[in-house]
Design a protein that fits this description.
Layout lengths: L11 H10 L4 H16 L3 E5 L1 H7 L9 E5 L2 H12 L2 E5 L4 E5 L3
Antiparallel strand pairs: 1-2, 3-4
Length: 104
């Protein structure tokens, strides 16, 4: 992924410092990188957001669910990720969101 954490109110040097302190579990990091590659192949950007990012900043590395936002068609990215990683997608078209379940 191009960026995991982006805060326009934090100076670049402060952002580098903050990023070094965030621990993302290896398996999750690999998954985020793959999602980012799939989104990028569609000309889109994807970012980890929500509670998982908060937890990583707090040093909590247990991940129960992963929230990702896409600048563009998130449902299409979810379908592409599901296809690549043998998962299933439930699309929520009225909200422009999708739930992706991956095999363990």
């Amino acid at each position: 992924m191009r960026s995991i954490i982006r805060d326009p109110n934090v100076a670049t040097s402060d952002m580098r410092q903050a990023t070094r302190q965030v621990t993302i579990p290896g398996r999750v990091r690999t998954l985020l990188q793959r999602i980012g590659q799939i989104a990028e192949a569609q000309g889109l950007c994807a970012y980890a957001v929500g509670g998982c990012v908060r937890d990583w900043c707090l040093g909590i590395t247990t991940v129960k669910d992963l929230d990702v936002t896409v600048e563009g068609d998130g449902i299409a990215v979810a379908h592409a990720v599901a296809h690549a990683l043998k998962g299933t997608v439930t699309a929520h078209a009225s909200f422009g969101t999708a739930t992706l379940r991956l095999p363990r």
